[in-house]
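TEACHING EXERCISE
Course module: macromolecular assemblies
Task: Read the component lines below, then compare them to the predicted structure of the full complex.
Student: A.B.
Group: 4
Components provided:
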Amino acid sequence: MLGPCSVESYEQTRAVAELIHDLGLRVIRGGAFKPRTSPRSFQGLGEKGLKILRAVADEFGLLVVSEALGVEQLPLVSEYADIIQVGSRNMQHFPLLWALGEVDKPVLLKRGFMSTVDEWLAAAEHIASRGNPNILLCERGIRTFETATRNTLDTSAIALVKQFSSYPVLGDPSHATGRADLVIPAARSAVAAGADGLLVEVHPRPSEALSDGMQSLTLEQARQLVDDVRRVAAALGREVA
Amino acid sequence: MLGPCSVESYEQTRAVAELIHDLGLRVIRGGAFKPRTSPRSFQGLGEKGLKILRAVADEFGLLVVSEALGVEQLPLVSEYADIIQVGSRNMQHFPLLWALGEVDKPVLLKRGFMSTVDEWLAAAEHIASRGNPNILLCERGIRTFETATRNTLDTSAIALVKQFSSYPVLGDPSHATGRADLVIPAARSAVAAGADGLLVEVHPRPSEALSDGMQSLTLEQARQLVDDVRRVAAALGREVA
Amino acid sequence: MLGPCSVESYEQTRAVAELIHDLGLRVIRGGAFKPRTSPRSFQGLGEKGLKILRAVADEFGLLVVSEALGVEQLPLVSEYADIIQVGSRNMQHFPLLWALGEVDKPVLLKRGFMSTVDEWLAAAEHIASRGNPNILLCERGIRTFETATRNTLDTSAIALVKQFSSYPVLGDPSHATGRADLVIPAARSAVAAGADGLLVEVHPRPSEALSDGMQSLTLEQARQLVDDVRRVAAALGREVA
Amino acid sequence: MLGPCSVESYEQTRAVAELIHDLGLRVIRGGAFKPRTSPRSFQGLGEKGLKILRAVADEFGLLVVSEALGVEQLPLVSEYADIIQVGSRNMQHFPLLWALGEVDKPVLLKRGFMSTVDEWLAAAEHIASRGNPNILLCERGIRTFETATRNTLDTSAIALVKQFSSYPVLGDPSHATGRADLVIPAARSAVAAGADGLLVEVHPRPSEALSDGMQSLTLEQARQLVDDVRRVAAALGREVA
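Instructor-supplied answer key:
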């Protein structure tokens, strides 16, 4: 299971990394480049963020997942991250997919929030056909008419992809729901549908987060989530790591 | 947990009722009136179907859920059914909601496949405000751009409704996915999100079903589903009935 | 072209009817039963509203279009209206469609806001196959992820239906956009795509309207709309009536 | 009004350019890089395609619009094209938007088929805020539940953007409908809603096209389209160029 966070400072990131370690998990995710719909919002710490991530990951023996926004960022992100993320808006940015096909690191390919399962698997094929078969898929909610949640977590898509592909599949209940009060049930739901892991946003003090605070769990809530999810997985004879 | 079926014959319905009883469940659902998109498809057995349902339910000590298509059918359906279903296409058919507000039986209100959670809860209020507070909500998938599944099961909506209303909530993985091979994981997913029960289509021989055969489980698959779902519920300290 | 309005009082309705007459149009629409998402909103004047509509229509020599919410309302609505409307939420309410198949008046069948063109034409077939071929189709916008407009006017559907069916097709830019400032361009757009007429909401004082005031045109704006639309139709060698 | 085509050969492109010139239009569009959902489809001629475009454009005195798939392609595409297109899947590919903000050529920004009008205008702001105010917006259909057309042309969005921004707006009826038989009415509809121009796919022999043949007009149909659209524009006192 992937740990959580959006890099704002060393202290904030270290607190999350410590929790991940305590819970026996192995991966920390963190966004260093966060372009936002509006050009006037916080856009991430850039390379400084990557350095913080690498430092705390090394301290706790974790792997780092971070997003590359485009081909030109690949060298930089590859220097610090162990797994390179393709964001939902980039799922069909083909030059990036092709370039990742030639990189020697696993790729975490988020489903486009308006992409069908067929298009998602075809995007994975764009990477794999260039030589990189190490792909993790991540369902993060699709855009629908429902506005009570930010997007709609498509747990059937998780089940479908488990059935028709051999890539591991993660669920991202944080982006899917956009609401901290729904993240735990949505996480359980993703795992019950077959997800092999989760991508969850956590923040020591969500109300002070510079991005996506509404959907970030506190450290305490994250412990609860991991506990719940492990129980569901165990009941189904699986492990979530 | 609600059992399953679309009434075609006494033998078919009895086989399903027997399974429901064996599994320790208490409710059988069956459609007697099945208007379909095209006027040339099978439209259900009508009152004959209701009689079959009542007979097999009485034999096995089960409750009957069946749909009333309009106000004018209420007297007939009420005569045979214990719980009256409002179909997804009728969720905002207000005259029916108002009439059900004056009926002395529980109402199973399916979410419109085009309705937001707010509209769904408002529809329940249309019933409750006329005097009938015995309402069961049922999430059965919403219409989205994804076509690999018939609809998209919105498990976050289940979690949301559990949080903001006091009505029991069911999940219908059969209509949501439209594919037998996804019904079991979707069912687990609904329960993990908080569903209090399920509505599942079962048929002794799905390939011969006159409606919705693609999504019907065999009796054997239904046993598997109940087993899986009970394990998930137990892991979360809940019961599914 | 169909004129406009939601019946609140004799004066308001008469002012709209007078405008329709002045513009050389022949039909007035008015809702008498207006169930709303919430049971606490204004629900229409009922039979009193129908009487007002009939009176002002007779004064100006107009035809009346009004909605029947269910089978049980058909006798009442038929007594006052010349054309019976099926609302968007009722497009697949089959008992109503079947009953309208046996009525000797034209039916205005609104497209469900979450229905495909195929389902819409099949709904028309449910009416026609019971014996009533006098059907007017009306595209009124579909539900999508876009929230800047209430729904999305699907002008391609108008073109498609003109090509594959022989029923007249209307456009409803008022419900589609939900914003008065977009009604005129949306109306032009519907006619340019092939619509044979329009259904437009008009109110002498939109800010005082009891329902849908945000999307109602003033009398002055309605004149502008009719002028624009007639010019577009003339340019394409058609008439809009 | 922008002319049409996807570059396959000199002859094919020249035939389209000649038509554009005959009709008194000034711009030719052509895709040189055509990544497709599946990595096994035709992917475009690349630089060879750009050279063909430039040559025929120069012969007939036309401007060239062509798409850059990513930041790394900008130098190449800028060498041959007069207007640089951002494709629908790239509307929120921020590094490309930022780089285009520093280019001295107009940008044609297609709306993401999954993007709201707000997100579209924000994407334009990402370009403009880096220094390039020469932006043409293009509505090309959004993804909805309707499958009879490839996407749903959102003519209300055209009207909305005309009202709230000062950028010129184009409509793309070819990608929106995905069907040649609907392109002409959809084009009329876009112009009637306020579009300043159109982007239309034309092919001398659509049935032999290597991409998007289903939606390409013949030369004869393109003449008809231009004629229709000019009549609509004239009726509304506007010109379409």
